[in-house]
Design goal:
Aldehyde Dehydrogenase, Chain A, domain 2, Aldehyde Dehydrogenase, Chain A, domain 1, six-stranded mixed β-sheet, 38% helix, 2 domains, 495 residues, 23% strand, alpha/beta, single chain
């Protein structure tokens, strides 16, 4: 049985005393075990990263970018290998795994432009014979803690920008599927990254707590559930660290009466059931405005019943399994709760059978109608293939539902009206907004992040916000006078 250890100082380490089993969600079979780092092992990784920072921070931005260029080419060459690992340990279908890699590579492409992104500002003659300029300098050792649902993409939202800015990094991937992050660290070494710049420690809360409290960690980036994001933020911030902690979501799609109904149904189906709903940007609530609801629900039901579900390593499927047996039970529990609360379960996917994978953690698409905002299935993040339909009489009622929800990660509207769309983008209190776009994930040269309890901290992730997060600004004011200018006892002003 393969034992996954840690990648510290450019090489694999010995196995830790504690371990966690890793399963293929499609088969239910144990495929590996991963070492869970002790506090001392994490501290060692931080010490090594600190030592590497001295040289790495003095490396030119262009040299850092050239390593990332090599990595991009290597991943493009090995994308099938990386996708296979994602599918085996996460369960998402092969095509979705490839898409995840592409979205991660877009951040690599952005980070390759770091020489331009790091440029400061210069003002000549800000005062008489005085020049002023600003620079962006790295922080030191930073840490990333990533979720199971995007084992390649989310890490690539963090470490490439961090190291491009001159920092050294300690990554802690999900213990459910850590191999993708381990592979990327090994491949970066092949591309010429110096030892100690990118380290990976596998572990659980013991490892995380060291990262949150250790005096040498300057910043923490996290993606996961809201309760954990809040814990990450409050603990790390209390220890003086910068924090960007992206939490949970309950993303709504408004379907207006004038929308292209077939286009909206297709978009909703993919956005709700893709990756078995295990996406922070999944659309989990459709708000049907006016008299479009009956037709919308009928067509959604037809699509949900026709989903092609199975082992994601087989090509051409729509949906794979959920990540663990425990999570499958939790999602089924939400469906039972929705029925108990009085919602209409139009499509029940709880008892789906995959003959070739009887022990896999499979669940079919579920569709609820007549959901109300006081129901648990509307209030909480289910993180599974469950779509809720809420019926409202008008646009204002739809926006009110979104704005009153505790989460504010992503949302979208389907309409043919430019006026309504423009009004929606202004009115809605959500961080990422789409118009006739089912999953409005910003490109890498913008930044990703929600509002309200979907984000703790001031900065969004990757893009320009990522550069800002991983650097500190230094302002310099200088002059070279000829002789003694005398003492000035009032506050300096520029003339």
């Amino acid at each position: 049985m393969n034992t996954i250890t840690h990648h510290i100082n450019g090489k694999a380490t010995l196995a830790s005393s504690r371990q966690h089993d890793i399963y293929n969600p499609a088969t239910g079979e144990k495929v590996a075990c991963v070492s869970l780092a002790s506090a001392s092992e994490v501290e060692n990784a931080i010490t090594i990263a600190k030592a590497a920072f001295a040289d790495w921070s003095q490396t030119t931005p262009l040299s850092r970018a050239r390593i990332l260029f090599k990595f991009k080419a290597l991943v493009e060459d090995k994308r099938e290998e990386l996708a296979a690992v994602i599918t085996e340990q996460h369960g998402k279908v092969h095509e979705d795994a490839l898409g995840e890699i592409t979205r991660g590579l877009e951040v690599i492409e952005f980070a390759c432009g770091i020489p331009s992104a790091l440029k400061g500002e210069y003002t000549e003659q800000v005062g008489r014979e005085i020049d002023a300029w600003s620079t962006n300098q790295p922080l030191g050792v930073v840490a990333g803690i990533t979720p199971f649902n995007f084992p390649a993409m989310v890490p690539m939202w963090m470490w490439p920008v961090a190291i491009a800015c001159g920092n050294t990094v300690v990554m802690k991937p999900s213990e459910k599927n850590p191999t993708a992050t381990m592979l990327m660290a090994e491949w970066m070494k092949e591309c010429g990254l110096p030892d100690g710049v990118l380290n990976v420690v596998n572990g659980d809360k013991e490892a995380v707590d060291v990262l949150l409290t250790h005096k040498e960690i300057q910043a923490i980036s996290f993606v996961g559930s809201t309760p954990i994001a809040e814990y990450i933020y409050s603990t790390a911030a209390a220890h003086g660290k910068r924090v960007q902690a992206l939490g949970g979501a309950k993303n709504h799609m408004i379907v207006m009466p004038d929308a292209n109904i077939d286009g909206a149904v297709s978009a909703l189906t993919g956005a709700a059931y893709g990756s078995a709903g295990e996406r922070c940007m999944a659309i989990s609530v459709a708000i049907a405005v006016g008299d479009i609801a009956d037709e919308l629900v009928a067509k959604l039901a037809e699509k949900a019943k026709g989903l092609k579900i199975g082992d994601g390593s087989n090509k051409g499927l729509d949906m794979g399994p959920l990540i663990t047996e425990e999570h499958l039970a939790k999602v089924k529990g939400y469906v039972a709760k929705g029925v108990e609360e009085g919602a209409t379960l139009v499509v029940d996917g709880r008892d789906i059978k995959i003959d070739s994978n009887k022990n896999g953690y499979f669940m079919g698409g579920c569709l609820f109608d007549h959901v109300t905002t006081d129901m648990v299935i509307h209030k909480e993040e289910i993180f599974g293939p469950v779509l809720c339909v809420v019926r409202v009489p008008d646009y204002a009622s739809a926006v009110k539902i979104i704005n009153e929800h505790e989460y504010g990660n992503g949302t979208t509207i389907f309409t043919r009206s430019g006026g309504i769309a423009k009004q929606f983008t202004h009115d809605v209190q959500v961080g990422m907004v789409g118009v006739n776009v089912p999953i409005p994930v910003p490109m890498a040269f913008h930044s990703f992040g929600g509002w309200k309890r979907s984000l703790f901290g001031a900065n969004h992730i990757h893009g320009p916000e990522g550069v800002k997060f991983y650097t500190k600004r230094k302002a310099v004011t200088a002059r070279w006078p000829e002789g003694d200018l005398g003492a000035e006892f009032s506050i300096p002003t520029m003339k």
